[in-house]
């Protein structure tokens, strides 16, 4: 799975290490870009962010937040798939305050995925063999 699919795709499975690295990396990257654009458009004046004349900076911030949300949901969906859960669980983890957040943090960040294949594909750890090997065993 290439980086583009890991960040923007909703199919497949993702192991915990990739989940943590991509989650933290994406948030840091978007935070840095947001800080740089804030400094570039406002000269570091945070009070200027509140003014109505700062539409370009506000539009960039909104776009970055939408991008961050998309990446976060895509990563969470693939982690749900690794736990053999439908991707809709990501909505529960994001939208249910406190209980959903804690449950999602534990479920996605700390619990191991399904060993071997599940309904969402092969193990991202390489456990269980490829599709061709599985088919060869069935028809052998």
From TrEMBL:
One of its GO terms (cellular component) is plasma membrane. Keywords: Membrane, Transmembrane, Transmembrane helix. InterPro entries: DUF805 (IPR008523). It comes from the Bacteria. The chain crosses the membrane at residues 20-43, 55-76, 88-106. It holds the Pfam family DUF805. This is DUF805 domain-containing protein. It comes from Caulobacter endophyticus. The lineage of its organism: Bacteria, Pseudomonadati, Pseudomonadota, Alphaproteobacteria, Caulobacterales.
């Amino acid at each position: 799975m290439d980086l583009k699919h890991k960040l923007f795709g909703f199919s497949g499975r993702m192991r915990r290490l990739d989940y943590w690295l991509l989650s933290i990396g994406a948030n840091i990257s978007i935070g840095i870009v947001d800080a740089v654009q804030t400094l570039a458009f406002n000269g570091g004046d945070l009070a200027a962010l509140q003014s109505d004349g700062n539409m370009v900076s506000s539009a960039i911030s909104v776009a970055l937040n939408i991008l961050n949300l998309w990446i976060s949901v895509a990563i969470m969906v693939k982690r749900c798939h690794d736990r053999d859960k439908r991707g809709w669980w990501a909505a529960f983890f994001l939208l249910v305050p406190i209980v959903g957040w804690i449950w999602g943090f534990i479920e996605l960040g700390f619990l191991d995925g399904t060993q071997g294949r599940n309904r969402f594909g092969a193990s991202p750890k390489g456990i269980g063999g490829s599709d061709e090997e599985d088919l060869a065993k069935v028809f052998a």
